[in-house]
Write a structure and sequence with these properties.
The complex is a heterotrimer of chains A (about 425), B (about 400) and C (about 650).
Chain A lengths: L5 H7 L14 E6 L7 H20 L8 E6 L5 H14 L4 E4 L3 H13 L4 E3 L12 E3 L8 H11 L4 E7 L2 H16 L7 E6 L7 H9 L7 E6 L4 H11 L9 E3 L4 H4 L11 E4 L8 H14 L7 H20 L4 H8 L3 E3 L5 E4 L5 E3 L2 E5 L5 E6 L3 E2 L8 H4 L1 E4 L5 E5 L4 E2 L7
Parallel strand pairs in A: 1-2, 1-3, 3-4, 4-5, 6-7, 6-8, 8-9, 9-10
Antiparallel strand pairs in A: 10-14, 11-12, 12-13, 13-16, 14-15, 17-18, 18-19
Helix pairs in contact in A: 2-11, 3-4, 11-12
Chain B lengths: L4 H4 L1 H20 L10 H26 L7 H30 L7 H13 L17 H25 L4 H20 L11 E2 L11 H28 L1 H11 L1 H6 L4 H27 L1 E2 L6 H14 L4 H19 L6 E2 L4 E2 L1 H19 L5 H12 L1
Antiparallel strand pairs in B: 1-2, 3-4
Chain C lengths: L8 H16 L4 H4 L3 H7 L1 H5 L3 H13 L5 H9 L3 E4 L5 E6 L4 E6 L5 E6 L3 E3 L4 H15 L5 H13 L6 H8 L5 H18 L3 H11 L5 H11 L1 E6 L8 E5 L8 H10 L9 H10 L5 E2 L2 E2 L6 H13 L9 H9 L2 E6 L4 H50 L7 H18 L3 H26 L8 H23 L15 E3 L5 E3 H23 L1 H11 L1 H6 L4 H26 L6 H16 L4 H21 L4 H18 L15
Antiparallel strand pairs in C: 1-2, 1-5, 2-3, 3-4, 6-10, 7-10, 8-9, 11-12
Helix pairs in contact in C: 5-7, 6-7, 7-8, 8-10, 9-10, 10-11, 10-12, 11-17, 12-17, 14-15, 17-21, 17-24, 17-25, 17-26, 18-19, 18-20, 18-24, 18-25, 19-24, 21-22, 21-24, 22-24, 25-26, 26-27
Classes of the chains: A alpha/beta (about 425), B mainly alpha (about 400), C alpha+beta (about 650).
């Protein structure tokens, strides 16, 4: 129970790493990932990643002469609880930075708290954009770093002329599909050639939807599926797809929420050739990546896989550590300023750069599913700078985010005014 | 003979005094008011717990006193939250949008302001037009009136349909659960006009109020305590009179009460609607403290938890409901908060985060089997002990 | 030709240059390059980073060279077994020798060159688009190949990319095709190709007539592009076009303003000003606190803005607003019409007629398919609910942990598959094992908990709910939160395809059969066995049953175990078609209760009818509102609530004493 303010509670906190002597020591790293409930499926992995990264940093001698200490709380996939736990982390545990959240709704729940208390959050998951908070660094992909390049790949490399946008009914698919619809129409795909469908979380009865998609091919255009289907529902979807005998050469499916972790619950032999777009795949052939994967497997078990949000935390944490060293303090404003322009090598090769809009510039990879549940990387772009406000929706096209020079996350370039300083939640 | 209401129900006085003392004590220790031993986040937790106690009282009225195991009261609770949330969101966004548009050279038209608010609120779900249900969102008074009104209408319609066709017992429970599920699924849709899965967020910021959260949290804590006190008083009054005797009669033998000439359906409907309104008010106080409301809150499981709290606290006694809700929700917070120390069994490290749910589940079973009177039953033992 | 720019950025430019030069020097060029390797080196950059947009001419050149190694190279390229040596950029066929080394073979001679470490090589990974182009190029080599699987591959490639050039080689290969099935397929594809690419209209119309009535998506895919229309604008209706229809602006198919905006977009008329544009223009013409004579503060209404704008327009500072008369005049001066993509009217007429004929049959078949889906969904609901029909329907026990028994069954199936890799054997073993596990769990629960609560049904609900969350969390602790695979045996892969519209996967058929088996089993058990008789007796009157020497405790225990056991088997089936997670059961519990309540408690036929009704209804609503599955579920539940009003005891209500609460 968070009865007491700082002094008493820090004794209770779950700690790793020994205490240190300096005044501000230990430096506390909050981990705000669900360890129970529906999202635990994805988020527990990220908690373990954070513990691994913190331990690594301590082995390297900590930061500013201090040990790091991870403070883990469990918001239990309960969105209001995210706000409560964030407040607890910032006021009771006095953490210097928070790494956390998976779903957009949980992020929106945390935003007001983080902004009110001037905290610092690193958000590691691909998301729908249309948001920019002074206190959040988005280390996952914005739509232009995942959805748009994947759609380009469909248009140019696969010659897809008709699109089925299938998604789970929540914010990320809704917004992403809105952006994609606008983008496709921009590219000359008529509105009637874009089929949109939303299903509930955990949907399992896919036969009709798959049949609908097949029927789209009736006017002789090549059909492609862009899937923002989330979590478990994918399993039923891919099973039905395989049962219907749809090969990736007939109707390719590119997924934005299916990674190594999700495929480990599936027999992938019937899915070979279908696609996923991410900024990271476990199969990336670099030294840094094989070291990372080896370390993860030794720690967590040989059957475990790595995925994109893990890399996002890896980059985010290391950038933060470097920024703290550069700023020589963990003060949020100082660290934020030091974050801009931070560079850190990606696990997939190349270097990620933190932009003034709190997004990373990262390469976009497209992978084909293989028999072993891994992805064969068949396309990699140059680093794409993340864009907080999409260029393809009229309302957002005029907005830009620049916390470094303009000091505004929602700046209207047409009227040259700052629409608002807080983020929209 | 007419003894005074309080004299008839000494427990009410004890409860109210206890609540007052608790509120005062917490306030004095709070960060935003007193010596600062209790953090703002814990004040919020306590305030929310008081709201949960209030909805537990509503549940106890309908289940403990009238025998209707409603698995839908959390839906009313959530609806109350949605109603107040609509105003909070609208008003907060209006301030932002007006400030932003005022920066332009040309003053905005009223339509531009509304469009701006619309695209701010619904931009998240890829829309920008205001659905009809937001018609009154610009008025605090109307939206406040809707807090009890909307759930009351839903309860009336549903209750009328259900009681009229004499659905009783477990059937009614399943039917109320279906209602909750339908409402949750409806709200989950983006097209529902209440931002789908995202729900309404940022509710902790009161529009136009610049006071820090440490103060706002206390205001809500006091309001919740007041609401709980009034709700308790109202409920005690309801169950102590003739109305109370009739509904208890319905619980014990519905057919007999009907034969005695009482319109059983009307009594049930009245109580069902009344408790729905109490639940809605509790929800309207709860969600501004939680900061966000979304359909997951309304999922059927929440209503089942509610029943479990009341069962653990002790049915058929109002303080039992309060005790159950307060105890279980606070203990849950403690165990899922990651603060409970792990237990190292040598071969296996027992983490509370993993095992708390198992223990909670099994404790329901044990309570139902061995202590059907719940925690409240302990007081009976105590009383008996006194007499002995 | 070589390119020696060092900067990466120039690589692309270099490739384009190479392409341009190569095509410039086209005649005799291929002959100069004596080997395939030399030919490939000319386009090395394009090949190693192949893109669908640029690889076409390269593949054409490779095929045109007529070198003997071409087919082998193309198929190796397609299979991702071509490797490029980093040192000299030469292409080889690579074979994995383990230990991150590859054995290279020369693409021309097939001679083994060397075995080298992977780091010295770069694998060519043509994407699916490029592989499609390669497949098309391979067609002419494969159509008459002795290997039937290669011929089939060629046909699939034609189906995917029906190009005009493939018609002739296809026709040539039909007569010599030995395999009857492949021959039929070849003839069908020939007809389809003729529709799009036949020599003259008569031949194409004949092909359309031959094929009419066929339900294949591929036929519609061949016909629809012919009758695709394009909206055009002109001042007069042109001659000699294959006109589909003329549209009148303001009519039902083309709005007046929409039409005008199209004119504006085609720059045939001045654009209308949007409110935003007016606002921007006004803010650009602010002079001393006024715009066009209107004070700034007054500009908060559209009317005031229009006045200010008009003033500006009169002063000649901005383009005047487009007025209604101008819109009408502009619309009157133009014709809006749609033309067919296919220039020949005979062909389009035949195609339209054929499509119309197909449409009715497609509609009928879609209804049939929907019906199959509904039956399939109903059988899943029935399977999930049948155990509940026993425990809740017969015994009146509300078992909220029923869903978790389903989950336990599914996990049992998963565990069995971990031990026994053969999927067929493991599934056959998993079914009885799942039954045994959940039977035991059910019996244990009945003995320990439910027995004590028989006359407190509401508290049974709570207690079993407690068990439910405990079991769910336990499953999470044991198996983790990640979904686990439960893979169906190979013979259940795929679908029963009646035609391109009606298809149903074998797993769903299997679930349907399983549901039928259970129905039969249940009926047999209840009507023909001692246990069934005793169960019915105890259900109707436990005291009387006890007086007759039946042990109600034992019967209750066995009945409950049976209901739970069936839930376990249902779990295996559901796991096969969906997913195995700790929340698997929770997804089905409310639906299962609905099924039993709607159908009528205490009667297996009721549960069957309930499941059928819910399944059909859900599919029906989904069909009406295809883009929102969630709405379908909401409306279905509302329907059920209303349905209960009229039949509070379900479709099949028990009568007489058994109906007592």
């Amino acid at each position: 129970m968070t009865f007491f303010t700082k002094p008493a509670a820090s004794v209770l906190a779950l700690t790793i790493g020994a205490g240190a002597a300096a005044a501000d020591c230990p430096i506390k790293v909050g981990v705000l990932h669900s360890l129970s409930g529906t999202m635990a499926i994805s988020e527990t992995t990220l908690k373990d990643t954070m513990l691994m990264l913190v331990e690594d940093q301590n082995d390297k001698g900590g930061l500013l002469g201090c040990e790091l200490e991870a403070v883990v709380v469990d918001p239990a996939s309960d969105w209001p609880l995210f706000a409560e736990k964030a407040r607890e982390l910032l006021t009771v545990h006095d953490v210097d930075v928070i790494f956390g959240n998976w779903t957009s709704v949980s992020r929106k729940s945390v935003l007001p708290v983080i902004e009110e208390l001037n905290g610092l959050l690193f958000y590691p998951v691909q998301y729908e954009g249309e948001e920019s908070s002074k206190n959040v660094f988005y280390t996952g992909a914005a739509p232009n770093q995942q959805a748009i390049p994947a759609t380009d790949y469909f248009l140019e490399e696969l010659g897809v002329e008709k699109f089925a946008l299938l998604g789970t009914d929540y914010v990320y698919p809704r917004t992403t599909n809105n952006i994609l619809e606008a983008y496709l129409q921009d590219k000359g795909i008529p509105a009637e050639d874009i089929f949109v469908n939303y299903t509930p979380f955990g949907h399992s009865d896919w036969s009709k939807i798959v049949a609908d998609v097949v029927a789209l091919g009736a006017d002789g255009k090549k059909v492609g599926v862009i899937s923002t289907i989330n979590g478990d529902a994918n399993i039923g979807f891919y099973k039905e797809l395989a049962a219907a005998g749809i090969s990736a050469d007939d109707i390719p499916v590119v997924a934005f929420s299916v990674g190594e972790e999700e495929l480990s619950g599936l027999d992938t032999s019937n899915l070979v050739g279908h696609l996923a777009a991410w900024n990271y795949f476990q199969s990336a052939d670099t030294e840094a990546n094989s070291a990372f994967v080896d370390k993860w497997k030794t720690l967590m078990g040989q059957e475990r896989v790595t995925n994109d949000p893990m890399e996002a935390h890896y980059i985010g944490f290391n950038m933060w550590a470097n920024a703290v060293s550069a700023a020589e303090t963990t003060d949020v404003d100082a660290v934020r300023t030091a974050m801009y322009g931070q560079e850190f090598p990606n696990l997939t090769g190349g270097t990620a750069v933190m932009l003034p809009n709190h997004h990373l510039a990262k390469p976009v990879l497209i992978g084909e599913i293989q028999e072993d549940g891994q992805f064969d990387i068949i396309s990699a772009t140059d680093p794409v700078p993340g864009d907080a406000w999409t260029d393809f929706l009229p309302d957002s096209a005029v907005l830009t985010s620049d916390w470094k020079d303009l000091g505004c996350g929602m700046y209207n370039t047409q009227t040259e005014t700052c629409v608002q300083l807080k983020s929209n939640y | 003979m007419r003894r005074s209401f309080v004299a008839q129900n000494p427990s009410v006085l004890v409860f109210l005094l206890g609540l007052a003392a608790f509120t005062l004590g917490v306030s004095l220790l709070a960060e935003g008011f007193g010596i600062g031993l209790i953090s703002t986040s814990f004040i919020k937790t306590l305030g929310k717990t008081l709201c949960l106690c209030l909805v537990a009282i509503a549940m106890d009225l309908i289940w403990g006193y009238c025998g209707i195991l409603s698995l839908g009261h959390f839906a009313f609770f959530g609806l109350g939250g949605y109603m107040i949330g609509m105003w909070l969101m609208y008003a907060r966004t209006e301030i932002i949008v007006e400030a932003s548009l005022a920066q332009g050279v040309i003053p905005p038209t009223p339509q531009e302001v509304i469009d701006g608010i619309g695209s701010q609120i619904f931009g998240v779900v890829g829309a920008s037009d205001f659905p009809v249900i937001w018609m009154f969102a610009d008025s605090l008074t109307l939206q406040l009136a809707l807090v009890p009104l909307v759930p009351a209408i839903l309860a009336l319609v549903f209750g009328w349909l259900a009681f009229r066709s004499r659905v009783t017992g477990v059937y009614l429970s399943i039917l109320t659960q279906a209602m909750t599920l339908a409402l949750a699924l409806y709200l989950f849709q983006n097209d529902s006009g209440l931002r789908g899965n995202n729900g309404l967020s940022g509710l902790q910021n009161l529009p136009g109020v610049t006071a820090p959260q440490s103060a706002i949290s206390l205001w809500f804590f006091w309001a919740s305590a007041l609401a709980l006190g009034l709700g308790y008083l109202l409920s005690a009054w309801v169950v102590s009179g003739k109305f109370g005797s009739v509904i208890r009669g319905i619980r014990d033998n519905e057919a007999r009460v009907r034969f005695l000439g009482y319109p059983v359906e009307s009594f049930k409907l009245m109580l069902f609607t009344l408790t729905a309104m109490i639940a809605a008010i509790a929800g309207a106080l709860y969600y501004p403290q939680a900061g966000i409301i979304n359909p997951a809150e309304i999922a059927p499981i929440a209503s089942i938890y509610l029943a479990v709290w009341v069962a653990i606290g002790g049915r058929g006694r109002l303080y039992g409901a309060v005790l159950g809700a307060g105890f279980v929700s606070l203990v849950s917070t403690w165990f899922t908060g990651g603060q409970a120390p792990d237990i190292n069994l040598g071969f296996y490290t027992l983490q509370w985060v993993d095992w708390w749910q198992v223990i909670l589940g099994l404790s329901f079973v044990l309570v139902t089997l061995f202590a059907p009177k719940g925690i409240g039953g302990l007081f009976d033992l105590l009383n008996r002990g006194d007499k002995a | 030709m070589t390119c020696k720019f060092r900067a990466d950025l120039l690589l692309f430019f270099c490739g384009v240059l190479a392409l341009a030069l190569a095509s410039f020097a086209r005649p005799g060029h291929a002959q100069e390059a004596g080997t395939l390797q030399q030919l490939l080196q000319q386009d090395a950059a394009l090949i190693s980073k192949a893109s669908r947009r640029t690889i076409g001419p390269v593949i054409d050149r490779i095929v045109a060279s007529d070198l003997p190694a071409v087919p082998m190279f193309l198929s190796a390229w397609q299979d991702k077994t071509i490797w490029q040596r980093r040192a000299d950029g030469l292409f080889f066929v690579g074979a994995d020798m383990g230990d991150r080394t590859y054995r290279l073979t020369d693409i021309d001679s097939g001679a083994v060159i060397a075995t080298v470490p992977k780091d010295d090589l770069k694998q060519l990974k043509p994407n699916s688009g490029v592989r499609g182009l390669i497949a098309t190029a391979l067609v002419r080599f494969q159509l008459s190949d002795p290997d039937p699987s290669l011929r089939e591959e060629a046909l699939t490639a034609i189906e995917r990319r029906p190009e005009a050039g493939l018609l002739a080689p296809l026709r040539a290969s039909i007569d010599t095709e030995p395999d009857a099935e492949l021959k039929a397929r070849k003839m069908r594809i020939e007809r389809l190709l003729t529709i799009g690419h036949g020599r003259d209209p008569a031949e194409r119309v004949a092909a359309i007539k031959d094929m009419s009535g066929d339900l294949g998506v591929d036929l519609r895919a061949a016909l629809n592009p012919l009758v695709a229309t394009r909206l055009q604008i002109s001042t007069d209706l042109p001659e000699g076009v294959n006109l589909a229809r003329v549209l009148s602006p303001g009519g039902p198919d083309l709005g007046r303003l929409e039409a005008y905006d199209m004119l504006a977009e085609a720059e045939l008329a001045p654009a209308r000003q949007t409110p935003d544009q007016i606002k921007t223009v006004l803010s650009n013409h602010v002079e001393g606190g006024t715009v066009g004579g209107v004070a700034l503060v007054r500009l908060s209404t559209p009317d005031a803005r229009a006045i200010a704008y008009d003033t500006l327009a009169q002063e000649g500072k901005v383009a005047p607003l487009v007025r209604d008369e101008e819109i009408d005049a502009a619309l009157a001066a133009h014709v809006f019409f749609e033309t067919y993509a296919e220039p020949n009217p005979e062909v389009t007429a035949a195609a339209l007629a054929a499509l119309q004929g197909i449409a009715t049959r497609v509609g009928l078949n879609q209804t049939l398919d929907l019906g199959l889906d509904a039956i399939s969904l109903a059988s899943i609901y029935f399977l999930a609910a049948i155990g509940l029909a026993i425990t809740f329907g017969l015994m009146g026990v509300i078992n909220m942990a029923h869903g978790e028994f389903i989950m336990m069954g599914a996990y049992t199936g998963y565990l069995v598959q971990q031990v026994i890799p053969n999927h067929t054997v493991s599934i056959l073993l998993a079914i009885p094992l799942a039954f045994a596990v959940t039977f035991a769990a059910g019996v244990a629960m009945e003995r320990l908990v439910i027995r004590h609560l028989y006359n407190r049904p509401l508290e049974t609900l709570l207690a079993t709910f407690g068990i439910s969350i405990a079991l769910q969390q336990l499953a999470k602790n044991i198996f983790g939160t990640q979904a686990r695979p439960l893979t169906a045996p190979g013979w259940l892969d795929g679908a029963l395809v009646l035609n391109d519209v009606v298809a149903i996967s074998y797993i769903r058929i299997a679930i349907f059969v399983l549901a039928l088996i259970f129905l039969g089993f249940f009926l047999f058990l209840m009507k023909r066995t001692r246990l069934g008789l005793e169960t019915r007796t105890v259900t109707q009157n436990p005291r009387m049953a006890a007086a007759m020497g039946i042990n109600p405790g034992r019967v209750n225990m066995l009945t409950f175990g049976l209901g739970s056991g069936i839930a376990g088997i249902a779990g295996v089936a559901i796991g096969l078609y969906a997913k195995v997670t700790s929340e698997l059961g929770a997804d089905y519990i409310v639906q299962s209760f609905m099924t039993v309540v709607v159908g009528g408690v205490g009667n297996i036929w009721g549960a069957l009818l309930g499941a059928t009704m819910i399944g059909t209804l859900q599919k029906g609503i989904e069909w009406l509102n295809p883009s929102n599955t969630l709405a379908a579920q909401t409306y279905m539940i509302i329907f059920i609530i209303i349905f209960i009003q009229f039949r509070p005891r379900g479709i099949i209500a028990l009568k007489g004493r058994a109906a007592g609460d």
